[in-house]
Amino acid sequence: MHAIITDGSISKIINHPKPLVIGDVQYPARIFSVWTASELAAIGIYEITFDDSKKKDETYYINTNQTFTYDADAGTVTSAYGDATAKAHADTNWTQAQIDDGKAPEGADTDTVAVRGLKYNFIQVIKQQAQGLLNQTDWYITRKAEKNTAIPSAITTWRNGIRTKQAAMETLITNASDTPALETLYTYTTDSDGVTSRPLGEFPVLGS
C-alpha cells in the first residue's frame, strides 16, 4: 500500500498498484514493482509502514480506524491504530433514560438486558460445544432406553467429565473480572516442557 504526497500532505491512498497521473505525467502500474523507493519518493509516492502495536483481538476489543501520518523530515508514511476499546464483558441493561426516550422495547425496564456481554456469549458457546460432544454418544442412551443394553462405563465417565468441565468453564467465565481477564482464559501459552494450554482448559477427549 502506498500514499501520494501532494503539497506536504497525504492526498491519496493507493491500495494496489495501478496506472496513475501525477501532475501532467501518466505513470504505468509497473513503477510500483520496478522503481526504487527513492525514485517513487521523488514523484511523491511513499510505501506505507504499518504499526499494529495497538491493534487488539477483535473478539474482545473494538479497534479504531487506522490513522495515516506523513513525516516530511523522515520521508515516511505510517499507519497506526489508536487505543482499542474493550467490549463489555457483562450484560448491559436498558437505562431509565433510554426507556423514557422510547428507545427500549415495550415492557422493558432497567432489569431488562439491552446488549449481551462477552460472558453470556462465551457461555452459550461452551454450552453448544458440550452439547455437541454429548450428542456423539447419545445413541448409547437411546439403546439403553429401548433395549436395556448397558452403557459402557468409559462412556458414562466421559459424559460426566464433559458436564463437569462445562460447569468449571462456565464458572471461570462468570468470575472473570473484566474483558482482559476473559481474554486471558482463552489465551494459549507454552511451558518449558513444550506443553501448550489455556487457563480455561479443554473438554475431555473420548477414549483418551
Outline:
This protein is α+β, with helices and mostly antiparallel strands.
Task: Give your account of this protein's structure.
Helices cover 36% and strands 23% of the residues. With 208 residues, the chain is an alpha+beta fold. The protein folds into 2 domains: 2-85, no CATH class; 117-197. The model has no long low-confidence stretch (mean pLDDT 96).
Give short descriptive properties of this protein:
single chain, 208 residues, alpha+beta, 2 domains, 5-stranded mixed β-sheet, two-stranded antiparallel ribbon, 7 helices, 13 strands, 36% helix
Task: Write the H/E string, N to C.
Answer: EEEEHHEEEEEEHEHHHHEE
Beta content: 15-25%
Please state the average pLDDT score.
96
As laid out across the biggest beta sheet, the strand order is 2-1-5-8-7
- Total helices: the number is 7
